Amino acid sequence: MFGIGFFEFIVIAIVAVIFLGPDKLPSAMIKIIKTFKTFSKSINEARTAIEKELNIDELKEDSKKYRALLEQNTQKIKKTISQDELSVLQQSAEEVNSALDDIKKAGQNSLDDIKEDDTKSATTNTLENKN
Question: What is d(CA 85, CA 92) in angstroms, rounded to the nearest whole number?
Answer without folding.
Answer: 10
